[in-house]
Structure formats: C-alpha cells, structure tokens
TrEMBL record:
It comes from the Bacteria. Its EC number is 3.2.1.86. Belongs to the glycosyl hydrolase 1 family. The keyword Ion transport does not apply. It comes from Weissella sagaensis. InterPro entries: GH, GH_1_N_CS, Glyco_hydro_1. This is 6-phospho-beta-glucosidase. The keyword Hydrolase applies.
Length: 485
C-alpha cells in the first residue's frame, strides 16, 4: 500500500528525441552529435565517428520510428493515464546546422503537431531543449561548447521554440544532465559524457587536468546560455516553468575513514556547482577557490555573472538510477581538482542490474532530502528513473516483474519523501515508458518500457508495440494516485 500523492501530481514518462524519433535526415533535419554515435554494447562504449560513415550501425538514425508513430505511441501513454510526457526537441530539426539564419519550418511544424496531440490527450508536455543532440556542424565549425559563440546559437534556438510553442508548452528544462561531464574518472563513459554534454573530444593522451580545464570552461558557457534562455522564456511568458536538469546519484564513502569522507565530499562538490549556478545563480566558494588557483574557467565576465543571477531556474529536474561509492586512493587530502584522487567502487550492500548499475531505492529518498536541505522548498521533478533490463517475449507477453519491483520500490521512497519528509516533488516521469535506444550503449536490448518495441540491436524487427505486465501495473499506480503500488 503506497502513500497518496496530490491529485495534480505529474505522473508519466520521459524520452529524448534522438533515442526515439529516427528520421535523422528527414524533412530538413541536420546531423546531430547523436547521429555519429555507433552502437556499443553492454560494457563496450559507443564510438564517435568523423561524420556519418557508410556501413556503420548508427541506432539513432532509426530509433523506434517515433517520428512516424508518435500518435499511436502517445495513445498508449494516455491509456496508462499519463498526466505528463517528457521529450526533447531535436535542435537539428529547428536549426539543422545550428548557425542557420532561419529556422526549418518543417521541423517546427512537426513539434506543433506533436504538442497539439499531447494537449488533445490531456498530457502535459515537459520539454528538454538540449538532450545530447546539438548540431554536429557546431562541433566541426566552432568546437562545440568550447566556443562562446555557441551561447548565441543556443539562445536563438531557445527563443524560437519558446515563441513558437507558447500556449502549447509550459514546462521546460534547458540542458539534460549537465553535470554528467564531471565524471572524468569514469573510464568507460567519460568520453561519451563530455561529447554528449559539450561536443568535446579530448586527445587520447589528454591528462585529467586538461580535461577538467576544458570541461569547466564549456560548462560555464552552457550555464550562461541556460540562464539567458530562462530570462528570455520568462519574458515571453511569465507562466513558463523552466528548470535545470541533473543526474543525481548519492555518493557514499567506502568507509568512515576521514580520507574517504573528504574524497566523497569533494566528488560531490565536483557535481554540485552546476546546480548551485542554476538555482542560486552563483558558483559556490570551493569552486571559486579552485578556479582562482588553477586558472581554469578563465573566460568569465562580469556580464556573465549578472546573467547567471538573473536567470535562476524555477525548479530542479533530476534523473535517478543508482548510487555510487567513493574511495580515496590514499590517506592524503583530496582537492577539488583531484579527479584521480579517488575511485568509484562497488557497494557490497546493494544488488546491481545486468549493466552493473546499483539498485538503491532508499538512495532516492536520501537524495531528495539532501537536495531539499541544500535548496529548501525548491520544487523537484523526477524526470527519469527506471530499470534497464533484457526482456523476453513469450507467447506475445512480457512478464517484467523485475521492472515492476524496481519501480515500485522507488516510487514508495518518493512517496515517503513527499508525505513523511515534506519534500516538494511535483512529478514522477519514469524513463523510457516505451522501449527506446539506450543513450549510453546504443542498444535496443537495454529496455525500460511498459511498452515493448519489436526491434533488435541491429534495428531489425517489425517495430510492433506490445503491452508488458508493467503497463497494467503503472496504469493502476496512476489511477490510485500512488496508493496501489
Ligand atoms: P541508458 C548514464 C549513461 C548515459 C546516459 O541511460 C545517462 C546515464 C545516467 O546518468 O543519462 C540518462 O540509456 C539520459 C538518458 C538515458 C538514461 O539516462 O544508457 O538522460 O538519455 O537514456 C538511461 O541506459
């Protein structure tokens, strides 16, 4: 028996354009940084290729053909009782190259129709402006977010869509999981993360500090661009609710050793300045001290600082999948820039998914409390949470009790955070309510959906949709306002 959430709680699901739409070069769409990512595999990173090279498997080129099927797919979301649905606008449908003088009308029209359909179904659109899919041209010509000019391109794009969809969309967020790129210590994923966040590629022999320097400067421009967009959005429509978006994973110390505690705190601070800038409009003290002593993020102006203060977000959007354990490599102090002074280790106390992600529902309640301690009263929307798993279809059915177990346990913790701890969580959008291409691995077989999509890792299959067992379960959760888990 779950605890009841408010009648206006935003139950639903979330996807991103590049993982679902396909139609990568249709109706004037330009090449995005997701379009040149090959398929990886479980434990095998995706490759970033130099443009689209014939013969490679680029899973985002087809996604789940959502570009053509969104009406049928949204009807299934409506059948589950969705109050909200999050997706992103593919920047390259609107500005195919990023620096185009005029937007692409066919791309604008596509989202007009999609948002109309969502509103017709009574589903609130929650829209991400930049979900790992900036125009590839901006990388080739300008060096991605290492170039201050990209701020203006982003702002023009944001202004265009805020204006066009005013009256159709109220909830927005700027950059998806902006702090992922701080995971410089992650051997498997760091190349992917700095690419998808910032369009940067470091030389193979780049040192950790060189990467850190490049990352903090690019992130500064992203934060300025976000703050400008927030200001412009509010000027266009004061009713717009515009958020910053971060992946949050609680960091636990590997032991009570003071060096582990300090390393854990520093690792947390390495992720937290993004949210401080979004929410408070200022960089935290330890970041300023780090920037002053290293000279990284050297290009910051007084005007930037004013923009950041004037463009604070209205809410925090978060994704939550797992928790992490931090171990200091030595007993020495860890400083902000010592990304190699600690390592991420396995937590022996919690199980893991087939992709090695720690399963920790209590960590979600813990995180929500931590966030509210840090930013008291700020509304939080959970815009991703879910269980990537292999599914078997047996006689046209998918018995995904493992997925139900994961989601049930996490939703129960959200309810405790809201009802018992008083945290203002305004919505829960599970990740990938319909199976989509995995961002991290490019696999189709890493599935999150309530709806099964008959496509395999090579993009082969009928594309047919099936309701899994979790479909009826989630429908009942929503209908009961979370009491019937
Ligand atoms: P997948 C990890 C790795 C890659 C992207 O991930 C990630 C994360 C989690 O922090 O971010 C989000 O598909 C992202 C989504 C993505 C989802 O996690 O690798 O916002 O685009 O699909 C799940 O299992």
């Amino acid at each position: 028996m779950g605890l009841k959430l408010a009648d206006n709680f935003l139950w639903g699901g979330a996807i991103a354009a590049h993982q679902a739409e396909g139609a990568w070069n249709k109706d004037g769409k330009g090449v995005s940084i997701a379009d040149i990512l090959t398929a990886g595999a479980n434990n095998k990173p995706r490759e970033i290729t130099d443009g689209v090279i014939a013969g490679n498997n680029y899973p985002n080129h087809h996604g789940i053909y959502f570009y053509d099927t969104y009406k049928e797919d949204l009807a299934l979301m409506a059948e589950m009782g969705f109050k909200a649905f999050r997706t992103s606008i593919a920047w390259t449908r609107i500005f195919p190259n990023g620096d185009d003088a005029e937007p692409n009308e066919a791309g604008l029209k596509f989202y007009d129709d999609m948002f109309d359909e969502m509103n017709r179904l009574g589903i609130e659109p929650v829209i991400t402006l930049n979900h790992f899919e900036m125009p590839y041209h901006l990388v080739k010509e300008y060096g991605g977010w290492s170039n201050r000019k990209v701020i203006d391109f982003f702002v023009k794009y944001a202004t265009t869509v805020f204006t066009r969809y005013n009256g159709k969309v109220k909830y927005w967020m700027t950059h998806n999981e902006i702090s992922n790129q701080a995971n410089l210590d992650d051997d498997m994923m760091s190349e992917f993360m700095i690419w998808t966040n910032s369009g940067l590629q470091f030389k193979k022999d780049a040192t950790a500090t060189e990467k850190l320097a490049g990352m903090v400067q690019a992130a500064h421009y992203e934060l300025v661009a976000s703050a400008k967009a927030v200001q412009i959005g509010h000027a266009i429509n004061p009713e717009f609710v515009i958020g910053g978006m971060l992946n949050v994973a609680p960091l636990y110390p590997a032991s009570p050793k003071p060096a582990d505690m300090l390393a854990t705190q520093k690792a947390r601070q390495l992720h937290d300045w993004f949210s401080d800038v979004h929410i408070r409009g200022t960089y935290p003290a330890e970041f300023e001290a780090f920037a002053a002593r290293t000279g990284y993020r050297s290009d910051i102006t007084q005007a930037d600082r004013e923009v950041l203060k004037a463009g604070k977000v209205d809410y925090l959007a978060i994704s939550y999948y797992n928790s992490t354990v931090i171990k200091a490599k030595s007993d020495a102090d860890t400083d902000f820039e010592d990304v190699q002074g600690y390592e991420v280790v396995q937590n022996p106390e919690v199980p893991v998914s087939d992709w090695g992600w720690a399963i920790d529902p209590q960590g979600l309640r813990y995180t929500l409390n931590e966030l509210n301690d840090q930013y008291p009263g700020l509304p939080i929307m959970i815009v991703e949470n879910g269980f990537g798993a292999y599914d078997d279809v047996i006689d046209g059915k998918v018995h995904d009790q493992y997925r139900i177990d994961y989601l049930k346990a996490h939703i129960a913790e959200v309810e405790k955070a809201v009802v018992k701890d008083g945290i203002p969580v305004i919505g829960y959008l599970s990740w990938g309510p319909i199976d989509i291409v995995s961002a991290g691995t490019g696999e189709m077989s890493k599935r999150y959906g309530y709806i099964y999509v008959d496509l395999d890792d090579m993009g082969e299959g009928s594309g047919k949709r099936l309701r899994k067992d979790s479909f009826d379960w989630y429908k009942q959760v929503i209908a009961s306002h979370g009491t019937d888990l």
